[in-house]
Amino acid sequence: MPALLRRMCLLALCLALPLRAAELSVDLGHGARTYRTEQLLARGDARTISVPDDVSFKRAMRYRAVPLKALLQGARADDALLFVASDGFAAEIPAAQILQAHGSEAWLAIEDPAHPWPPIAADKAAGPFYVVWTDPQAMRIGPEQWPFQLAAIRRLAPAAERFPGIVPDPALKPDSAIRKGFAVFQRTCFACHTLNGQGEARLGPDLNIPHSATEYLRDDLLRAYIRDPQSLRHWPQARMPGFDRQALSDSELDELLAYLRHMSARKLHADHP
Length: 273
Known about the structure:
disordered N terminus, 19% strand, Immunoglobulin-like, 4-stranded antiparallel sheet
């Protein structure tokens, strides 16, 4: 058999094979528990859900999914949960948003190896596990709270305890715009970026060292970039999503920029841990 024909037969055989079952690790501080694809699909609480406007696929999608809170037995409402993706994305979501949902509900979508999901883009898949939300507008769930390619969920101490370098001046009043911006930063930016070299994510550049974007971009251009990154620098391979006013209000954007400007004067370097 000619070499080219052999390669074509091998490729056809590979395409015909189902995807391998995957594993999700959940560690809430009492030892990690592993869930396999087939176990999750066979659960009694698994059901088919419809997501009318999926954040990643940009269209209506249907999934076989289980309520995410059902996999978080033992978690407390004041816990922080880290959702780690295989591509380096790491989203921190307050457990309260999942356990005490008021309108929005989080689901773990499970990719069936026999019926794989379409790709999000030519070189990007969402499976094997993907956190999706029904009625996300009710709690203003942002795009960074839809982690796909999910590999692990871990219970964490609060971010301020783990990463003191991201904390603004303790002397600030609790209701200051900078402190509010710190909360916005943790919700919208910390899933992809570090700050002062601290954080779990490795997708985007550090937002404070060697320079903060507030130091080299005009205010109007920085605002435009956050709203629509492609409007400032067209780059087809860019991975940063835009944050519209539903995901990030004008007042929240003001607070975020106040925090970033504040932190530009609080840089930490290798010789200053």
